[in-house]
Every structure is written in structure tokens, then in C-alpha cells.
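Good morning,

Attaching, inline, the C-alpha cells for the sequence recovery test we're adding to the shared suite. The designed sequence is right after.
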């Protein structure tokens, strides 16, 4: 019997044969890579400035199952960067609209909209069954809760953030002995709920688009790694995107042996 957490992998049957040709012709993807993407289940946390373009590229890549977690509703001020929403959808739930967007885009994909706030108490349950979590939410407390749940479940995490003209995208596998988790990177100081900054600081919409699209690409890199694909998953690498320069720098996050999320003392 089919695992209900996994996509039905009906993608190839439901689609015209040319839909993913541009992927399959790439030696880094090919038929095996595309089949891996069609089997994959990605949980997206936050359908905002990062989550919207990330969702579009993940759906475009034929990711077979997408869990869409967001408790927020569309606001008019979201529209300059949250690319899946339209003006007449202001006031509606983002998770539900994201699911509708995917359905209209490609009937071969499955979605599970989750219209509740993800917290330390429910995160492990909400991401269950995912092969990867892409977190583009807007606050540290949620990011840390998601990271801890990913470590506990052994699920890779691509964490992305953006503000003004700066973006960050990191790939974490804190469940592995030598790899950092997101908490190793930011420490424990941000568990409080009041660290949101992006609303006050402003953000260029295209900057969120660059960051979200790059986060989707890093997620695809992780999902393809078992079949060769685009090379190493780049665990513990944090890429810093600068929109003003413009340019990108990469740093390596060290695993913190004392980390509350992934350290040796975590039980
Ligand atoms: Zn850690």
C-alpha cells in the first residue's frame, strides 16, 4: 500500500512528455534525477517573499509532494514580493492559496496546506514524512523550532532569510555527526518571539525573489545528491547574497558540540 506521506509519483503519466524536457536533458538531472524529484516531499515553512518564488520553482521542478505551512493571510503590502498572490486574494489564507496555485500550475503534483502556526510543540508533527524542509519564515523563534524538529526527525533543512538587499541561504543536516544545524549558526539568543525585523527594515522584492529561487536551487541540489546530481549537498555552508554589490560570499558553519539542537547531549 502507498505511504500516504509520499507522493503518488503520477507525474510522468499526468503530464505531456515535453514538460520537463529541459531538466531531463541536463546530465546532472536526467531521468533518474527527475524521478527522484517526482518522488520527493518538500515541506515549505512560510509562503512569503522567499516561500512564494521557492514554491514556484519547486513546483516547476516537478517535486511530487509539497506541504505548505503558513497561518498568515495575504496583505496588500505582500504583493511586491510574494509572487503567487494577486490583488483580489488579499485577506485569504496563504497556505490555501499556495495549494490552489500549485493545482492550477500542475495537476500532477500533490499539496497539503497547513493553516496553523508552526511552533516548537507541533513542528516535528507538521514536517513528518518530508525529505527536506525549506524554511523561509520571518522570525527566529520559528526558525529555531523548525531546525530542532529537523534534527530530531533527521530531515535536511534549507533555511533562507532576506532583508533590505541582503539574503542568506544555508543547507543544514545537524542530525549528521559532523554537520551544523541552524541553531549552531545563530545560537540560543533568538528563541524569543520578538526578533522580527523585515517589516521595519524594508525589502526589495527582487531580492526576495533571488533568495527564494536560490533556496529552491539548493533544495533541489540536496534532493538530487543521492543520484549524483549537482554534486555535494553543501551541508553547513551559508551563502550570503548581496544585492547592492552585487555578489555572493560563502561561509562554513562549524558544529557546536554544546548546541541545544544537535549537540552530543541532546536526547
Ligand atoms: Zn546545532
Amino acid at each position: 500500500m502507498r505511504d500516504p506521506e509520499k507522493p503518488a509519483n503520477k507525474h510522468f503519466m499526468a503530464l505531456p512528455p515535453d514538460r520537463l524536457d529541459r531538466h531531463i536533458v541536463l546530465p546532472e538531472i536526467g531521468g533518474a534525477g527527475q524521478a527522484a524529484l517526482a518522488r520527493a516531499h518538500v515541506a515549505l515553512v512560510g509562503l512569503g517573499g522567499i516561500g512564494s518564488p521557492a514554491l514556484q520553482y519547486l513546483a516547476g521542478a516537478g517535486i511530487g509532494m509539497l506541504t505548505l505551512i503558513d497561518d498568515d493571510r495575504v496583505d496588500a503590502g505582500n504583493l511586491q514580493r510574494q509572487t503567487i498572490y494577486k490583488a483580489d486574494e488579499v485577506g485569504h489564507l496563504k497556505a490555501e492559496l499556495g495549494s490552489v496555485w500549485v493545482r492550477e500550475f500542475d495537476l500532477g503534483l500533490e499539496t497539503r496546506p497547513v493553516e496553523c502556526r508552526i511552533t516548537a510543540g507541533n513542528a516535528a508533527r507538521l514536517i513528518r514524512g518530508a525529505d527536506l524542509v525549506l524554511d523561509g519564515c520571518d522570525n527566529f523563534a520559528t526558525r529555531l523550532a523548525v531546525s530542532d524538529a529537523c534534527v530530531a526527525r533527521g530531515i535536511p533543512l534549507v533555511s533562507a532569510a532576506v532583508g533590505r538587499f541582503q539574503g542568506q541561504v544555508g543547507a543544514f543536516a545537524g542530525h549528521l555527526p559532523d554537520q551544523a544545524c541552524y541553531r549552531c549558526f545563530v545560537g540560543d539568543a533568538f528563541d524569543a518571539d520578538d526578533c522580527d525585523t523585515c517589516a521595519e527594515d524594508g525589502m526589495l522584492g527582487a531580492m526576495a525573489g533571488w533568495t527564494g529561487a536560490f533556496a529552491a536551487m539548493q533544495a533541489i541540489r540536496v534532493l538530487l545528491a543521492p543520484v549524483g546530481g549537482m554534486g555535494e549537498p553543501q551541508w553547513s555552508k551559508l551563502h550570503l547574497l548581496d544585492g547592492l554589490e552585487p555578489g555572493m560570499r560563502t561561509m562554513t558553519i562549524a558544529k557546536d558540540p554544546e548546541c541545544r539542537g544537535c549537540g552530543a547531549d541532546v536526547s
